[in-house]
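Researcher: I'd like a structural prediction for the single chain below. Treat it as a standalone chain; there are no partners to consider.
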Amino acid sequence: MAKNVGILAMDIYFPPTCVQQEALENHDGASKGKYTIGLGQDCMAFCSEVEDVISMSLTVVSSLLEKYNVDPRQIGRLEVGSETVIDKSKSIKTFLMQIFEKHGNTDIEGVDSSNACYGGTAALFNCVNWVEGCSWDGRYGLVVCTDSAVYAEGPARPTGGAAAIAMLIGPDAPIAFESKLRGSHMAHAYDFYKPNLASEYPVVDGKLSQTCYLMALDSCYKYFCAKYEKFEGKQFSISDADYVVFHSPYNKLVQKSFARLVFNDFVRNARSIDEAAKEKLAPFSALSGDESYQSRDLEKVSQQVAKPLYDSKVQPTTLVPKQVGNMYTASIYAAFISLLHNKNTELAGKRVLMFSYGSGLTATMFSLRLHEGQDSFSLSNIASVMNVGGKLKARHEVSPEKFIETLKLMEHRYGAKDFVTNKDCSLLEPGTYYLTEVDSMYRRFYDIKSVDKTGENGYIANGTTH
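Model: Treating it as a single chain, here is the predicted structure.
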């Protein structure tokens, strides 16, 4: 069996177009701080008419292979997690095969995984299990999480975002899975879903969605702790995790979620809770599960108690989700990338607890062990290659009016055919793929912004590279 299987390399791409949440507050006539403090968000990325989940995926996969000097023939499994439906039959993975076909590699297993924000985690587990299993052929796995999160006009619209993340999977990884330590919770709920195939917008029950998230968190933590106790022979508490990473629809929910773990540890009488915290949480010890989800007082007190631990264990993971927004399947891994960006020199030997949630609902808590690694597959190099700070600084802020105008155009074009985009790639970095047209048979054509100085572009269409 392969040892220390996990993530060898990562890259992230998000659109250069973004809107400030404070400006959106003003435009929407919302109370000051509703989006920035109430939701805890700073900025939101969105796709212009020339970008979509396919172009972002093509960009991030090409970038990862090039920057880490990985031969496309070394990829044996490629899985995509997404809830952004481009086609009801044809997987996003098949579009990405264009990159590999031109190198003669069509022997690549895997397709797309879909269930709200959990699809990326399902794809990741599939690749990790493949490398750990008896069907592994010695090549790398590659996982792509890609989504464009957009909402109809209303209170959910500020919780959008867009990004694609690629992860290279193999043995002897600097980001290794503790594969036996997983706790999952799967159930049936209508908290967030997309039943209208003619629209990109979801149906959202915001209050139920938050409760479902916290219920799933409680359940996953219970199962995770039980497995830790079974395999390690001792109790688990949040003291045993150096950092905790959450799926982040918006930052306020992350704050509430970590406080919920602290409350769980209090109920379990875990060693992470000191006497002062016990005294503050004691009045809530008799609450039933349902009562605890609805108690504003518990929410407030548990966040106060949790704040010092939140600042050290969670805050370093929040940069990209707060700046880019909700990236659905990519969201939890963007939070993890934030940790690599902020703390890469201090992470060797650390354990990171991960919580992935997808509405409807599916959730898993799992654990990663970090090692410095070697050469290009090292934590410091991964952080350097991703260049999160540079990518955030290079973005172009647009007005709320322009943002809304773009969303209206995308609404009109969703599921449409026989149109040509404006092909404006002036804001895109060289090497970025972009949509040029959708023909009368719904076939999508993409171009790539030239990397060389001649201005000539490579052209990709219909699975053929010209």
